Amino acid sequence: LVLKAGSGKIGQRMIGEGISLWLDQEQSAVTSAAREKQVIIIDDTQTQPDFVRSPFLPEERSEMAVPMIVADELKGIFNVVSNLPNRFSQDDVRIYTTLAAQVAVALRNAELYAEQMAAVERLRELDHLKTSFLANMSHELRTPLNSILGFTQVILEEIDGPLTPEMVSDLKLVEKNGQHLLKLISDVLDMAKIEAGRMNLSMEEFDLMELLQEVLESMGSLARDKSLYLTLEAVPDHTLFVTADMFRLRQIIINLVGNAVKFTETGGVTLSVEKTTQVIRIAVSDTGLGIPPNQLESVFEAFTQVDTTTTRKVGGTGLGLPISRRLVEMHGGKLWAESTGTPGEGSIFYLELPVEPNPTAIN
Ligand code: ADP
After folding, report:
1. Is ligand 1 within 6 A of the CB of residue 299?
2. By the 8 A CB rule, do 275 and 240 touch?
3. % of the chain residues with pLDDT over 70
4. Strand partners, 274
5. What is the DSSP letter of 293?
6. How far is CA 103 from the centre of its chain?
7. Which helix (H) or strand (E) holds 221?
8. Model-level pTM greater than 0.85?
9. What 3-state DSSP class applies to 2?
10. HSE-up of 165 (CA within 13 Å, CB side)?
11. What is the mean pLDDT of residues 322-328?
12. Which of 49, 192, 233, 337 is 20 to 30 Å from the Cα of 11, by its Cα?
């Protein structure tokens, strides 16, 4: 037991001396109260033959030691001494026990607070480590992967010599899986950045219709490979200026169109745009599998896929939609899906951006 606080001249002097007691060796009201977790009162030190007098308290006649207990745990002893005999009554015991219990609770809270602050600090460090680890790792992974993909392309183009049909089909698998891995790495990095609050938008004004045309052209071959139509319902005046992060908006629309093509077998995908005084709303609708109504929200959670067998067939990370939603929210917009879940009736994904953007960084 270490003396932590003391009042009065003697108390102060004892603190200065750095007084401590061995809990299981020394006989005193303080150590007994600590061992027994009970209030100990000495009514008169002169009638107590085994009383060990402290050199600091030569005139001590009576003493009360009250344990400070919280949740059955001893936090300390509250010790009062007097020069008068029989100084401490049962009323004093009641009052000081209540006080000691309250001080014990306060002490426990302070300890918990300190522990929590230390844990928060540690978590912050870990989070920082995680983010920089992911950032570094994804760079380290991307570099060799790009080289694998590049050389696969070189071989596929038969620059190094002719290939057998088996070699071509094997190399195409290498390429497909390599591309998948590359997408996964960049999605994981985006997610990490968003979660660490380090994703920054770079807002600029541009023509949304031009961006949509560009996305359509780049996704056209995917749709044609599956004999699907991919159309854009043009707005009346053919241009529509928005203020947004163009790179991120392209990423979001590519994700939505990519999903629509992925999960549609017949029919196709239509993009349409609408503008009100408040918002610009882009809708991506398809005639595919659809999404069961009870899963319309969960598809926006990380690594969630409606049917893992279909997605395994068509590929995917389950990160595209959660990243897209967070990016849209950072623009002050909304992203949601509607579907009956009936195959063939498809789904519609709505992306709404405010006309007057007020981008916020989310943590
Ligand atoms: P990924 O497509 O990489 O698996 P996403 O987060 O983009 O990840 O999509 C999550 C899941 O939502 C998909 O796996 C799929 O189950 C469902 N989904 C998304 N878009 C569509 C769509 N247009 N039609 C049907 N299901 C969809």
Report:
1. yes
2. yes
3. 95
4. 281
5. G
6. 35
7. helix 208-225
8. no
9. strand
10. 0
11. 96
12. 49
Q: Is 323 in the pocket of ligand 1 (CB under 6 A)?
A: no
Q: CA-based diameter of the chain, in Å?
A: 110
The neighbour count for residue 6, using CB atoms within 10 Å, is 17
User: Which of these, 88, 99, 98, lies nearest to 42 by C-alpha position?
Assistant: 88
Q: Is the pLDDT of residue 133 over 90?
A: no
Whether the per-residue pLDDT at 361 is higher than 50: the answer is: no
Which residues is 2 bridged to in the sheet? 20
Residue whose CA is at the smallest distance from ligand 1 atom 11: 305
C-alpha 119 – ligand 1 centre gap (Å)? 37
Of all atoms in ligand 1, which is nearest to the CA of residue 311?
14
Indicate whether 14 pLDDT > 60.
Answer: yes
231: region left, alpha or beta (phi > 0 left; psi from -120 to 50 alpha): beta
Mapping DSSP to helix (H, G, I), strand (E, B) and coil, where does residue 338 land? Answer: strand
Cα separation values, 87 from 58, 159, 321, Å: 17, 103, 74
Q: Ligand 1 within 6 A of 318 CB?
A: yes
- 136-154 per-position pLDDT tens digit: 777 788 889 999 999 999 9
Q: Please, what is the angle between helix 165-195 and helix 90-156, to 10°?
A: 150
The confidence band for 363, taking pLDDT boundaries of 50, 70 and 90, is very low
Pairing of strands 204-207, 241-244: antiparallel
- Does residue 257 sit in helix, strand or coil? helix
Return the structure tokens found at 157: 């183009």
Give the residue carrying structure tokens 């390599």. Answer: 178
- Under DSSP, is residue 299 helix (H, G, I), strand (E, B) or coil? helix
Tell whether ligand 1 has an atom less than 6 A from the beta carbon of residue 215.
Answer: no
Distance CA(126)–CA(150), nearest Å, equals: 35
The residues that bridge with 236 in the sheet, in sequence order, are none
Strands 73-82 and 229-233: unpaired
Distances (CA, A) of 268 to 231, 281, 330, 346: 8, 20, 30, 10
DSSP state of 266: S
